[in-house]
Design brief:
It is a single chain. With about 180 residues, the chain is mainly alpha-helical. It folds into two domains: about 80 residues, RNA polymerase sigma factor, region 2, helix turn helix motif (Rna Polymerase Sigma Factor, Chain: A), CATH 1.10.1740.10; about 80 residues, Arc Repressor Mutant, subunit A. Helix content is about 70%, strand content about 0%.
Length: about 180
């Protein structure tokens, strides 16, 4: 079951061993993704389980044009975003474009901080800022992609990111 193609085909055929192998291979890294979008370990576990249910039910749509891990990660991120919407912990819709200009581009406070410390601080952000920060700074999406994914304007995405950076910098200065 080590070959990715064999693993995918096994999952498509509802082979429990293949499904378990796929889950065990990717669950740890995907749990870390879930933690970036949720406020507790319990919520992250829920999102992870829901995401893997979707992975197994949608595995027939996987094409080999991208790595399996990237496809699974996309399912996990989309599941986390859906979870946030369901829980009404969704983005503030106010577009504060003017605020973006006021935020300094000082990102030096983010360098050198431990991952767990940053994760803890990111979890304290308002839900909108948290989602945009994760998608832009950690997952590498562009603001136009984030806007489409979340159903917001590109300006809102930029302002939420700027606000997230400002809040994180303030929290880091407080903490350290």
């Amino acid at each position: 079951m080590k070959d990715e193609r064999t693993l995918v085909e096994g999952c498509r055929n509802k082979d429990r061993i293949a499904q378990r192998t796929l889950y065990e291979r990717f669950a740890g890294r995907m749990f870390a993704v879930c933690q970036r979008y949720t406020r507790s370990r319990f919520e992250a576990e829920d999102v992870l389980q829901e995401a893997f249910i979707k992975v197994f039910s949608q595995i027939h749509t996987f094409r080999y044009d991208c790595p399996l891990e990237a496809w699974i990660k996309r399912v996990v991120i989309n599941t986390a975003i859906s979870y946030l919407r369901k829980e009404k912990a969704y983005l503030e819709q106010a577009d504060i474009d003017n605020h973006t200009d006021a935020v300094a581009e000082n990102e030096t406070a983010l360098s050198g901080i431990q991952y767990q410390q940053l994760l803890s601080l990111v979890r304290e952000l308002p839900p909108g800022c948290q989602s945009v920060f994760n998608l832009y700074a950690i997952e590498g999406y562009q603001h136009n992609e984030i806007a489409e994914m979340l159903g917001i304007s590109e300006g809102t995405s930029k302002s939420q990111y700027a606000r997230a950076k400002q809040l994180l910098q303030a929290k880091m200065l407080e903490s350290f």
